[in-house]
Amino acid sequence: MVDIEGTPVTVESVRDVGPDTVALELETPDGFDALPGQFVLLRAVPGDDADVDEDDVVARHYTLSSSSVEDTFEITVGVDPDGDLSPWLAGLEGGETVHVQGPFGEITYERDRDVVAIAGGPGVGPAVSIAEAAHGAGHEAVVVYQDDEPAHVDRLENLEDEGVTVVFVDEGDEAELSGTVEAHLEEGQHYVFGFHDFVTFVAEAIDDAGGDSDEALIENFG
């Protein structure tokens, strides 16, 4: 059997959190002190065949979507039916082993300030984790989320019930997105997560509204 790089951790559970989206709860390895906003490199060999080699190992980066890592931590996975890894991850039942390295990334939240978390598509995972961490620490939080098929709606609605401002923006409605960015410009440290076109648009919207996108913490998913 091939020796897979990284720390082996147990998959505690897998649950649906939106259309073609699952959340994996993973065992927290010793010494793992990740902060909201950081990510891990996950490696696994999809399938059950023990006769594998290094070419069968698939690696992907996933940003944490849990606000803490005390006993377990969570990653959110968008499921591509034709993907090499995500369909296999989505089909796990718990008890399986995957390998992780990290945490990585300099975009972190240390529960020390008000936040405006702006997410496009898969960026909702870290955005909701940062909002939960801020709210739990007694700070103000805003979540702006653009997606026609939103994930983690239950967590976002729980935040709304607790007084956190959550704004859902339809895909393609750039006027509403830029207006929402402007409306919440001065309400906290900006965290922006999503693919290139989305984070570029949000950065320009911050600048157009009189802010400074260089001060925003932006994670481009490619």
Detailed description of the structure:
The chain has 222 residues and is an alpha/beta fold. It folds into two domains: 7-104, Elongation Factor Tu (Ef-tu), domain 3 (Beta Barrel); 115-220, Rossmann fold (3-Layer(aba) Sandwich), CATH 3.40.50.80. The chain is built from five helices and eleven strands; from the N terminus they run E-E-E-E-E-H-E-E-H-E-H-E-H-E-H-E. The chain has helices at 86-90, 124-136, 153-161, 174-183, 196-208; strands at 7-18, 21-27, 39-44, 58-63, 72-78, 97-104, 115-120, 141-146, 165-169, 189-194, 217-220. The strands form two sheets. The chain has a six-stranded antiparallel β-sheet with strand order 4-3-6-1-2-5. Strands 9-8-7-10-11 form a five-stranded parallel β-sheet, sandwiched between helices. Helix 3 (153-161) links the parallel strand 8 (141-146) and strand 9 (165-169). Helix 4 (174-183) crosses helix 5. It is globular, with a radius of gyration of 18 Å.
CATH topology of the largest domain: Rossmann fold
Give the strand tally: 11
What is the total number of structural domains? Answer: 2
Q: What's the arrangement of strands in the largest beta sheet?
A: 4-3-6-1-2-5
Q: Tell me, what is the CATH class of the largest domain?
A: Alpha Beta
Averaged pLDDT? 95
SSE topology string:
EEEEEHEEHEHEHEHE
Ranges with pLDDT <50 over ≥5 residues?
none
Number of helices: 5
What attributes characterize this protein structure?
11 strands; 5-stranded parallel β-sheet; alpha/beta; 33% strand; Rossmann fold; 222 residues; Elongation Factor Tu (Ef-tu), domain 3; globular
